[in-house]
Specification:
Bound molecules: 6-O-phosphono-beta-D-fructofuranose
CATH architecture of the largest domain: 3-Layer(aba) Sandwich
CATH class of the largest domain: Alpha Beta
Radius of gyration: 22 Å
Number of helices: 11
Helix content: 40-55%
Strand order of the largest sheet: 3-2-1-4-5-10-11
Structural class: alpha/beta
CATH topology of the largest domain: Rossmann fold
Number of domains: 2
Number of strands: 11
Distance between the termini: 63 Å
Length: 327
């Protein structure tokens, strides 16, 4: 098999801090091995529209510390169609690109797998999402930063909560996964943590809040994952508690997209740098349809299909830790 000479890199789906560090790593690894590299703007949509530019080692100066993605990102509807994927393939052919690195989450990897099956085109995935919901890696790029952002926001909420003796419900992101809620909840000392993976029921939450009042606590934080399964959104939860526990004055704070922004943590920068090197080296070795990830602090690979289908399980031991900490 002939060695590939040109690859393209894109960021796709929800942006995540550290995506720029991953782009930088891919581009510089290409330069190191004398490979040409192109950047695709706006993910699969940009690829369909032929929005590609050559990237050299110098194109990625001064981006390692920046949040967002210099290549922009999108969730492409057109790429879900065969015609869209055909156009994307033609764009790559036009620029003599021989392999693709996709930095994104499971939706982006699903697109990559279908594209590979239809066009026999080499694809390597780098997990980049704040949700940490990808099988085959202990950490996705952006998760650590988002956690720290959430914790620092909750710390600030705690100041005002305690000044007014209030109970705050804080909603964090994570789509259907509770990684951010559980870890930020423990890290910020939440009274209760509601995650989609473990619906402990509303009565338990009320009981825990009663207990906390009886034990002398005058303010509390409940961290709620946006995908939690109580059947009530965060505002309804607040109303429910006010109705059932009139002794509490309740407020709600939805952290929202601020969790996706900001300068990446050192952990995310190092992770992104390591995974970018590995992605390019795998392509040079003739490998495809793999995702690079981290396990026991080693860079490992998982088939893209498995990464999409597998379940990254949450560590429910942390719920027990949280329980003990609320004594
Ligand atoms: O997947 C990342 C994420 O931020 C999720 O946590 C959240 O549910 C979703 O994206 C929000 O998507 P959008 O930015 O398209 O509203």
């Amino acid at each position: 098999m002939e060695k590939i000479k040109k690859i393209a890199v894109m960021t796709s789906g929800g942006d995540a801090p550290g995506m720029n560090a991953a782009i930088r790593s891919v581009v510089r690894t290409c330069a190191y091995y004398d490979l040409e590299c192109m950047g695709i703007y706006r993910g699969y949509q940009g690829l369909i529209e032929g929005d590609l530019v050559p990237l050299t080692a110098r194109s990625v100066n001064n981006i390692i510390h920046k949040g967002g993605t210099i290549l922009k990102s999108a969730r492409s509807k057109d790429f879900r169609t065969k015609e869209g994927r055909q156009k994307a393939f033609e764009s790559l052919q036009k620029h003599q690109v021989e392999a693709l690195v996709v930095i994104g989450g499971d939706g982006s990897f699903t697109g990559g797998v279908i594209f590979n099956e239809e066009h026999n085109f080499p694809v390597i995935g780098i997990p980049g999402t704040i949700d940490n919901d990808i099988y085959g890696t202990s950490h996705t790029i952006g998760y650590d930063t988002a956690l720290n952002t959430a914790v620092s926001a909750i710390d600030k909420i705690r100041d005002t909560a305690s000044s007014h003796n209030r109970l705050f419900f804080v909603e964090v992101m994570g789509r259907d996964a509770g990684f951010i809620a559980l870890n930020a909840g423990v890290g910020a000392g939440a009274e209760e943590i509601l995650i989609p993976e473990e619906d402990l029921g509303l009565e338990r939450m009320l009981e825990s809040l009663r207990k906390s009042r009886r034990s002398g606590k005058s303010s509390s934080i409940v961290v709620v994952s946006e995908g939690d399964k109580t059947g009530k959104n965060v505002f309804e939860l607040a109303d429910y508690v006010e109705e059932n526990l009139p002794e509490y004055e309740v407020r709600v704070s939805v952290l929202g997209h601020m969790q996706r922004g900001g300068s990446p943590s050192c952990f995310d920068r190092v992770l992104a740098s390591r995974l970018g090197v590995s992605a390019v080296e795998l392509l040079l070795d003739g490998k495809t349809n793999l995702m690079v990830g981290l396990r026991d602090n080693k860079v490992v690979t998982t088939s893209l299909k498995k990464a999409i289908k597998g379940q990254h399980n949450i560590d429910t031991e942390l719920l027990r830790v949280s329980d003990i900490m609320t004594t």
